[in-house]
Structures are given as C-alpha cells and as structure tokens.
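Appendix B. Raw example, untouched.
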Amino acid sequence: MGRSGPAPGSRVAMMVEDLAALRRPVRTRITVAAGLQALAAVLAVTPAVVLVEIGRRLLDGSVRSVWGLAWLAVGLLFARFVLYAAASLLSHLADADLAYLLRRRLTGQLGGLPLSWFAGGVSGQVRSVVQDDVATLHHAIAHARADLAAAVAGPAVVVGYLLWVDWPLALVTIALVALAQSIRMRLTVRAADQTQRMAAASTELTAAVLETVRGIAELKAFARHGRAPRFTAAAAEYVDADEQAQRIFLRPRGVARATVSPATVVFVTTALGVALVGAGWSDPVDLVAFALLGVGLFEQLTPIYLAQDLRDSARDAAGRIVKLLGEPPQSAVEPGLARRPGTPLTVELDDVRFSYTDGHPVLAGVSATLAPGTVTALVGPSGAGKSTLAMLVARFADVTGGAIRLGAVDLREIDRDELYRHVGFLLQDSVLLARSIRDNIALAVPAASDEAVHAAARAAAIDERIRALPRGYDSVVGEDAHLSGGEAQRVAIARTLLADTPVILLDEATAFADPDSEAAIQDALAELAVGRTLLVIAHRLYTITDADQILVLDEGRLVERGRHLDLLAAGGRYAALWAAQQDGDPATTRTDPAVTAEAADAAVTAVTAVTDVDGVGGRR
C-alpha cells in the first residue's frame, strides 16, 4: 500500500501535511473551540486570584468590597463552565462529522480498488485503518488544539499573576517546574522510537488476531497444541515493547513527579516565603497565592505533552489513512464517456493477457466467445488461470493486454453499476451479510417487492426453510438465522436470481455441500441457468458434461476447446483430467467412447462457476 519510505525529516513533514489535510473540513470549528477553551482556562484561574485578593482586603479591613469579589468569582466560574461545555460540544461534533466523512471516503476508495488488491491478507490492515486509525484521530480533532490552547493560556495567566504578587517566590516556583519539565522533555525524546515500536506491534497484533479467528478450525486441527504462531509472536513482541517502554519511563517520571509534587512545592515556597516575610520583603497573604496556584502549575502544563504524544499517534494514523486513500483505484470511465453494452450480449475474450504487478504472467493470449444463452466451462489444473480469467470477466481486475467485451463494448468503457446490471456471480463459499434474509436476497435490488423475493427463494428451493426460521424472512443472519453451507448457498442463488443478470459467472457451487444439499442446489442452479449466458469454473468435470463449450487452460494458455465427448475423443489435456477424476487410464477413455457416453449420460448435470475471490453478486 502506497508511498515509498522517505527520509525521517520529510516523513514527519508529510505526516503533518496528511493530518492537516484530513482536518481541513472542520478546521474552523476546532479553531473556535480552541479559543473558547483557552478563555475557559483563564477563567478557571480567576476564582483563586479573587480568593487571594479577598484575603488581602480582609487583612486590610476592607470588608465591604469582599462580597462583590465573591460574586464575581462565582460568575466567572459559571462562565467558565459554559465556555468549556460549548468548546467541548463544538469540537466533538466536528470530530464526529470528520469521522463520518473519512469513513465514507475510505468506503468509496475500497469499493474502487481492484479486487486483486485485497489478495495477500490486507484485511487486518484495512480494518485497522478504517476503524482504529480513524478513531485515533479523535484526540487530534476533538481535544488536541483546544487542550493545547488551554495549557498555554492558563499557565501564562498564573505565572504573570505570581510574578506580580512576589517575583522571588515566583522564580523559585518556575525553577521547580522547569526542572520537572526538562526531565519530561528528555523522556519524550528517549521514548520516540519505543512509541513507534509499540504502534507497529499493536498493528501486527490486530492483524494476527483477525488471522487467528478466521483460521481457528485449522489451528486447532493442525497447529501444535492449537497455538497460532503469528499471534503468539505478535503478543510477545507487544508485551516486550510495553515492558521496555515502562523501563524507560518509570524512573525519570518518578523524579519529575517528586520535584513538583504538592508537598515539595508547598514546602519550598513556604520555607522561602516565611524567610522573605520575616525579612519584611513579602506580605503573608502572598503565600496563599502560591499555595493555591503554584501547586497546580505543573499539572496545567501536562496537556501539552499528552497532546504531543497523541498528536504523534494521530499523525501516524493520518499517514496510513492518506496512504490508503492514495492507492490507485481501478480505472473508472470518465463522466459522459461511458458506453452501454450493445445487443446481443456476447462476451468476447480477445487475446486476453494478465500479469501481476511483479510481472509474473498468469494469462497469455486467451481468446474465446461466449454466445448468449450458452454455457461455457473453464477447466484445467490448479494454477492454470481459471479463476483469474473469470475475475477479469467480472472486472475485479483489468486485463494487462488484449480486451474483454460485453455486447461489443470493452468492459473498461462500461460504468461499474451498468456492468453489474448485466453480469452477476455466484461463488462456492457464498457470503451472507449480518442482515435479514430478505435484505440478503434483495441485496442487488433493494426495492424488490416481498413477492419477488419470495419467488426467488422458491425457485432456489429455500423458501420453506426460511419460513421455518423464528421471524421468517426478517430473521437476521447470525442472530436467529443459522444456516448450513448448502442453505446459505441457496440463499445466494435466490439473490442471483432476483438480480436477473443475463450473464452469470459461477464457481463450484456444490463444492462444500452434503449430498442432500447438493441435489437441492443443482435444482436451483438449473433454474438459474435458463435463458442466461454462463461461464463456469468447473473442478468436478462430471458437472459440465453438457456444456456448450469447454475451455481447457494450462499454464495460462488456452490449449483446447470443444464439447465433452469431442475433447475426450481428442485424447488431449481434457481427456487426461477426466481420466484422473474417473480413476481410469486416458487411453481406455479415449478408445471406448461407448463407455464415455454412458458415463456422461449418467452424470448429474449442474451449472456451476466463478472466482476464488470473496464477494457477492448481483446488480448494485
């Protein structure tokens, strides 16, 4: 994902720019919120100042003006609460709006990326960016600028007042705070690398947890003692990083805290203040100001460092968000230039070539025609390029050479929504969303009537099972709708039927079904095949013996094409694959067509097909 690694200085500058760019839509609101919170911080100090002045006047015998000052303190305190609440509300609304905008942008970006981008286990990274990194921006948006403004304005007023009251005592107090701050600054510098290590360890741990949950069955069955090696290593690295950070932080942090603890500040200022009062250089009431204000001065500065730490995390998160947003999307048709497929809706594969970004070729010069209303089967050994070819027909990725046309129009010239009104797909391991059964069936046609949804379910032989659920079609997958693999596949077939696309790409839809479910699925597929153009990836050859044409791929090349019996008679790659599945000898199969015909007539004909890639089909 994204940009190459720049020099450290330029990398920091880029992250600052990334954060600023993401924050731009709400910049005005968070600036106003920062101003309000700075004013609230100033008003938070004034009651203590008023209290000192009340004490001064009481010692001078000026009792009359005391009540006025007391009510002033109450009014200022109330105003502080109002300003703080207004600042908090404004900044948090800005944060919520920005999170919504960013997640919408990220969702749109992910929808525009080629499906091949998602191969290679990026789901943990995507989840971390969309959920965790956007959440990490919360402090930078809702708190950082406002807290920083308050941490500057409040202490500035306190220091100014203490210098006015008694500058020698003020300088001593400032010196104590400066000493603690210098320790804290050195600690911040030392912790920078460790903070980055912890962030990296946290990201890896998140990805490892997702991988472990998804592969829990395999881990229990095959991993030693059921342990997940990646999760174990990631957890150990995170614990080690955290322990190392604590060793770095513990001692300096303790020294800094002790230097500016209330007991230390009160003891030093009181001792020096008594000496100054005894010498006649200070007023006793001045000690009250230092006891009230000097003690909390260091804590008022703490948000500066907290904001810095969280701002660094936010910059890292912003960098990852911008990086994902900057991934090159699959080429889209410019507005006004999109074309609609013509008729008939013939699918043409014209010298199709495809290579991955590393240059590894997958397909080399595949040409074929899928006539409307026919069934075309893709067969071949593992790694031959079957799934890749079907992926290209679905435009999950774009060809790197040649062209694929639908109705004589290049797929790259057809708008994505228009394309998926004509092309649907059904996978071997269908995914149902955590929504109602009705919504899952109507995913491609949300406005479909209940009768249309029910008719699709009946055609897919799943209507009775749905009605037996606690809430029927309103039952939610994973809550009160727990379906077997075969039942979920039939719901997916109903979804594809309702989408009513004239071209359908199918994967081995019965691959994970038990015998009873397989029969029901084959009946549903027979209904689905009527009047449509089908491209089938077939792993079990007996399911495609009645296909109109069979395309045999080997090492990315089209090595044979024809009907089942013709290919068997040719004695080539297809005959070898058939013989291997029949546990027979290619020569025997080739020289005894009567046996072959009998086997073909007895075979259960099912139409099945496409990709090995997760997704859902239908019109969008």
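End of appendix B.
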